[in-house]
Design goal:
Elements lengths: L4 E9 L2 H11 L2 E5 L2 E5 L8 E5 L4 E9 L1 H13 L16 E4 L5 E6 L5 H15 L20 E9 L2 H10 L4 E6 L3 E5 L4 E2 L3 E5 L4 E8 L3 H13 L4 E7 L6 E6 L5 E6 L3 E2 L8 E2 L26
Parallel strand pairs: 1-4, 5-7, 8-12, 9-18, 13-16
Antiparallel strand pairs: 1-5, 2-3, 3-4, 6-7, 8-13, 9-10, 10-12, 11-17, 14-15, 15-16
Amino acid sequence: MSVHSLLGYALTVPDIEPGKCFYQDFGLSGTARGNALGLRCGDDTRDTVTLEAGKGRRLHHLNFAASAEGIKALKANIESRGGQLLDPPSSEPGAAFAVRDPDGNLIVVREAARASVLDRRKTVIDAEAAKYTRAGGRRGCPPRDMVVKPWRLGHVLLFTPDVDKQIAFYTDMLGMKLSDRSGPVIAFMRVAGGSDHHVMAFAKSDRPGFHHASFEVGGIDHVGFGAASLIGKGYRSGWGFGRHVIGSNYFYYIRDPWGSLAEYFFDIDYIADDAAWQAKDWPLEDSLYLWGPNVPEDFVQNFDVER
């Protein structure tokens, strides 16, 4: 009884064109869909990011996947706990149902097969390494015209006025698991069945909001080169290059046109379903990074318009 994958997210934005330029420069491919824009990672056949015109930038909805049996169980569980099942938005044809979390964020669930993240990750990493392997098997430096294209969405972090309420909803209603937290400030959630350390995270704020989405790339060079390329095109560095403690991944964040962040990441912890994992309450100094530049003052600022 659980969602098994995070498929994507949709944002309302005041102007789609700057968003199109940003995400395409970030490495996603875009397709106009009526009054919206769909963007995809790598060889995905579904949109990972959707931008819709609105009065201000904010999260419109999140997309999760579950099996057919999982959807039946989720519906029954949500209703038994007093939750209200909603019709999915018209922009998500074929979705099974929707529900709102305690902050009012719309969660859309559809039936889809579970992809093997570990197998796909190995394929991507091996293919990228092979591109730059020189005679004798030595790994060479990538070329200066290297093009960075994220191959999937890894996780999303949302602001919330109550981290504990969000943990309760996503565990009790959607069957997710708490991986780690740092007091009332931040929490990291994974899906059942074997998962990256987190596919969702929640950070304390005075109101709901969208902090960042994180996209996986094929190596450390891709993290640094992708960020340098975007900064060279005039986008603002959000924070990086560095390595997180919780989740362990290398990171670099870039500011999008509306103040939120898009992250390149590589080498995140994976938690097998049968792992003897115990969620830990980490000290606040470990909640952000092991090494890297100092955290910018605006890194945890909520730029979303008030609802």
